[in-house]
């Protein structure tokens, strides 16, 4: 029986698939959209508050000063991904329409997602302080780097003004709860540390909420109606190939650089993700007058695939013995 259960899907992956199916048939719409967005924001804020209350100051300092790991993550996010999209153009173009390939190149220029990258890193028992620092910094840097990258590698992208609204949202939703958790750590840190199951529930719950709200928006935008079946299937293959290449390179690079297992987990989850929350508002500005729906469809598809794949990877990492965590941060 034990041999058989090894091949059964992870329980969280089943929850994830159920959430996608639920959003496909019963997407949030009308008044339900802001309600679910607010609930998701509250869950993410609670997640960062609990992480702030749980993490020691020493761990946070170690995460900030782990410059080699952060440099590799940023290089993967803003340099490697666009190169993958350009080098694989002869393979990807026949699979999709020109508009969808434009969207693929756009997603390659985006910053990393924050919430799910940190949540999956936490689930997999990776270097959470480094993930918090890296993912948050990636979103901030992306506000400046992504428009420049789009202008360089995406045909007919044009010039676009940069909005600083995302900076305030990141500060309010992520950094502020984390700082508040740190400030209250003296009084609630021990209580939070003893209740790891609570953190796990918030981690997984926030991911499921992000999946439902994001997929609901995609369905409401005509995800299953506005794209030919062959192009949609080709897009799934293209996104899967790009994600597989990114995961493979980050896995190999982490070993070559001599990082510990928690650091390699952080590199994989923070270096292979692309932000849907940042991508859609940017697309509306950068591609004004274009078919924005077709341009953001690859991002929506990639977002779902990365969540599914990373959920499976996080589940596998989480099952390793406690003594396999490692506590080092490379040879910095």
Q: Assign the CATH class.
A: Mainly Alpha
Quickly count the helices.
16
- Main sheet characteristics: none
Q: Beta-strand percentage? A: under 5%
> How many beta-strand elements?
0
Which helices and strands occur, and which strands form pairs?
Layout: H1 2-5, H2 11-25, H3 32-54, H4 57-64, H5 67-87, H6 89-92, H7 98-108, H8 115-123, H9 128-153, H10 165-183, H11 185-193, H12 196-220, H13 229-256, H14 261-271, H15 276-286, H16 292-318
Helix pairs in contact: 2-12, 2-16, 3-10, 3-11, 3-12, 4-9, 5-9, 5-13, 5-14, 7-16, 8-9, 8-12, 8-14, 8-16, 9-10, 9-14, 10-11, 12-16, 13-14, 13-16, 15-16
In short:
With 332 residues, the chain is an all-alpha fold.
Protein model, in words:
The chain crosses the membrane at residues 12-29, 35-55, 67-88, 100-120, 132-154, 166-185, 235-258, 279-302. One of its GO terms (cellular component) is plasma membrane. Helix 8 (115-123) packs antiparallel against helix 9 and helix 8 (115-123) runs parallel beside helix 16 (292-318). Mean pLDDT is 79; it is low at 1-8, 156-164 and 324-332. The chain is an all-alpha fold and 332 residues long. The chain is globular, with a radius of gyration of 19 Å. The chain has a single domain (11-318), classed as Na+/H+ antiporter like fold (Up-down Bundle), CATH 1.20.1530.20. The chain contains 16 helices and no strands. Helices cover 76% and strands 0% of the residues. It has helices spanning 2-5, 11-25, 32-54, 57-64, 67-87, 89-92, 98-108, 115-123, 128-153, 165-183, 185-193, 196-220, 229-256, 261-271, 276-286, 292-318.
């Amino acid at each position: 029986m034990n041999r058989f259960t090894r091949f059964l899907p992870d329980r969280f992956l089943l929850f994830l698939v159920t959430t996608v199916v639920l959003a496909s048939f019963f997407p949030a719409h009308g008044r339900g959209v802001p309600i679910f967005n607010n609930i998701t924001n509250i869950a993410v804020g609670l997640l960062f508050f609990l992480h702030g209350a749980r993490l020691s100051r020493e761990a946070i300092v170690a995460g900030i000063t782990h410059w080699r790991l952060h440099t590799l993550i940023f290089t993967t996010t803003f340099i490697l991904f666009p190169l993958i999209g350009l080098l694989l153009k002869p393979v990807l173009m026949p699979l999709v329409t020109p508009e969808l390939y434009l969207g693929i190149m756009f997603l390659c220029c985006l910053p990393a997602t924050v919430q799910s990258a940190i949540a999956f890193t936490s689930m997999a028992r990776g270097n959470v302080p480094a993930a918090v620092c890296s993912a948050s910094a990636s979103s901030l840097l992306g506000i400046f780097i992504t428009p420049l990258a789009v202008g360089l590698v995406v045909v007919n992208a044009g010039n676009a003004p940069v909005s600083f609204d995302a900076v305030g949202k990141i500060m309010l939703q992520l950094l502020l709860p984390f700082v508040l958790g740190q400030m209250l750590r003296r009084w609630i840190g021990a209580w939070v540390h003893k209740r790891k199951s609570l953190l796990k529930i918030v981690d997984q719950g926030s991911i499921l909420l992000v999946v439902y709200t994001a997929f609901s928006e995609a369905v409401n935008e005509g995800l299953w109606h506005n794209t030919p079946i062959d192009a949609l299937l080709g897009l799934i293959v293209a996104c899967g190939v790009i994600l597989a290449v990114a995961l493979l390179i980050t896995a190999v690079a982490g070993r070559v650089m001599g990082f510990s297992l928690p650091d390699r987990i952080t590199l994989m989850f923070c270096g292979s993700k692309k932000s849907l929350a940042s991508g859609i508002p940017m697309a509306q500005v950068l591609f004004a007058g274009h078919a924005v729906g077709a341009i953001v469809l690859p991002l929506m598809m990639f977002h779902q695939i990365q969540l599914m794949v990373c959920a499976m990877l996080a589940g596998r990492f989480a099952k390793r013995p406690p003594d396999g965590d490692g506590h080092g941060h490379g040879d910095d």
